[in-house]
Specification:
It contains seven helices and eleven strands. It has 256 residues and is α/β, with parallel strands linked by helices. It has two domains: 177 residues, Rossmann fold (3-Layer(aba) Sandwich); 66 residues, no CATH class. β8, α5 and β9 form a beta-alpha-beta unit. α2 runs parallel beside α4, α3 crosses α4 and α4 runs parallel beside α5. The longest helix is centred in the C-terminal third of the chain and has 22 residues. The N and C termini lie far apart (37 Å). The structure holds adenosine-5'-diphosphate (ADP) and magnesium ion. The site of magnesium ion has 3 residues, from α1.
């Protein structure tokens, strides 16, 4: 389980402090797929960086409660552009996280190859990122995020720069691997439909400072159903969330 309690983040700056997040409470059950939606600049990426432990919160706590108290959270992060190291081959990129964990070389090579095969990249092990298409790079990024076995996967608009068909294919690939490995996912998107296709639960953030202003749990029977299959249930909630986001975008535009 992952728990953010009263998390706020303010960035100091010479032009005045930037309050990015205010009092965010977010808990995700083990294996839950949570989607975060909100207008641009509302603090979505900041929240993922906080959960990943890359930056400290200004107030509040980020915890991973277990039977033996709180343990450190092991996360892996996938960015919009994949974040592969350009100077490493695909295989080395995927094995890198295992190297950091101290896994011996032959074993990390084998595990990295397993995961690359799961995303259909077995023929591209020795290619460099620039030799791959954008979709292939994101597949490699998926393999890299799953291979370390971190129980929490943080995804920051991972497929936003892909064309629509590739986007859908990668969503399906993600769901397929996720079903097999059942990680807790916090998935950032600005697309309500994408969130409704993927998530167990949707959280909507206000314009900066981001606060959670709306929560929607997708009814069990509709979760991750095939595209085009009975979608009438979405109409009302889609409308409601779009209106909320629109209001927040207008509010932030009026301020700037
Ligand atoms: N390191 C930083 N220093 C100063 N301000 C920052 C920093 N990182 C993010 N911000 C500001 O915090 C706000 C939220 O940013 P971000 O989390 O990237 O939003 P989102 O991902 O929702 O678009 C923005 O106003 C951004 O300019
Ligand atoms: Mg962002």
């Amino acid at each position: 389980m992952l728990c953010c309690k009263g998390v706020s983040k303010t960035f100091p700056s010479p032009q005045g402090d930037v309050e990015a997040l205010r009092q965010v409470d977010l808990c995700a059950e083990a294996g839950e797929f949570v989607c975060l939606i909100g207008p641009s600049g509302c603090g979505k990426t900041t929240l993922l960086r906080l959960i990943a432990g890359l930056i400290p919160p200004t107030t509040g706590q980020i915890l991973c409660p277990t039977e033996n108290g709180n343990s450190p959270i092991r996360t892996s992060l996938v960015f919009q552009e994949g974040g592969l190291f350009p100077w490493m081959t695909v295989l080395d990129n995927v094995a890198f996280g295992l190297e950091m964990l101290g896994v011996p070389r032959p074993l990390r090579k084998k595990q990295a190859m397993d995961f690359l095969a799961q995303v259909g990249l077995e023929a591209f092990l020795h290619h460099f990122p620039y030799q791959l298409s954008a979709g292939m790079r994101q597949r490699a990024a998926l393999a890299r995020s799953f291979v370390t076995g971190a129980p929490v996967l943080l995804m920051d608009e991972p497929f936003a720069s892909l064309d629509t068909q590739m986007h859908w294919i990668l969503e399906e690939e993600l769901l397929r691997i996720w079903r097999e490995h059942r990680k807790t996912v916090v998935y950032v998107t600005h697309d309500v439909d994408e969130a409704l296709r993927l998530g167990d639960r949707l959280l909507v953030l206000t314009a900066r400072p981001g606060r959670i202003c709306y929560e929607y749990t997708v009814p069990q029977e509709y979760r991750r159903s095939a595209v085009g299959k009975n979608e009438t249930w979405k109409q009302e909630v889609r409308q409601e969330i779009w209106q909320l986001i629109r209001r927040e975008v207008e509010r932030s535009l009026a301020r700037s």
